[in-house]
Amino acid sequence: MNFIKPKIVVSKCLEFDACRYDGQLITNKYIKMLKEFIDFIPVCPEVEIGLGTPRDTIKVVNNKDGKILFQPSTNTDLTKKMKTFSDAFLSQLENVEGFILKSKSPSCGLKSAKMYVSKNNSPSMGAGDGLFAEQVRNRFPDFPSEDEKRLNNVFIREHFYTTIFTIADFRGVDTMKKMYEYHSRHKYLFMSYNQALTIKMGRIAANSSGDKFEKVRAEYFQELLIMFKKRARYTSNINMLMHVMGYFKSDVTSNEKEHFLSLLETYRQKKIPLSALTSVLFSWATRFNNRYLLNQSLFSSFPMELMGQAKSRFL
Ligand code: SF4
After folding, report:
1. Taking CB atoms and a 6 Å cutoff, what residues make up the pocket around ligand 1?
2. In the predicted model, is pLDDT for residue 314 greater than 70?
3. Domain residue ranges of the chain, discontinuous segments joined by +
């Protein structure tokens, strides 16, 4: 399967530049490996607003007067500069599929930046979005955005990879025919996420009311983003597996069916990975040369080389 490279905005200090406040670069093995498969757009908002490297620390002050980005050593409020930069940077992005941002940063942290109640010495009170991250969420509310630390979780990582490569694949949809093919190719992957939404998107792609292509495309894309806002659930996966198994009900032997159903039960009990079942289905699709199923992204939703990093779809 050929994969379109997703365009991902990434905090520059993650594997790209030693631009942290202390002059350090953060190594991240996942981002390192992803470089081959992704068009990264590295950005360091703090350097972009003119703070040097190394630089004095800054913090988010969040209280009844609002939320500001503040540098205590120079007594400088950096909020306006950061908002102006973020707005300009984010508004010129085209065809971006997602974001990977540095954890805990007062600028880039997604829900993880420490919040302080006052400019002076005060303990932090919980965590929230850094100022740049907040603008990312405002402008791209339904797009995949991940905190680099969360990528250590295999389930989150695999979901993120599936999401960005499937969304990137939509870039090539420029006709109704291609939208129909896209929906068809991802149908069982979508079903593993949300069956009701899969049906709704199928109706949009069918365009029975004859709306203009651009309108239909925008509507479909919005639902696509919503589809991936939550990870696939066990119940949806089981439902999807039963559907796919239905293709072979008169081809495989009763022993094979029994074996599959017993695997399904074991999967239901969360004792084996999903891959134990998808690999059986894939081998049947190969054996009976079911081209439609062999073409399904369900069996490979992102490059195989990244599989070693993300086995959970299969966990
Ligand atoms: S976390 Fe963001 S602002 Fe801080 S160094 Fe990294 S890229 Fe720059």
Report:
1. 11-13, 19-20, 44-46, 102, 105, 107-108
2. no
3. 7-152, 154-315
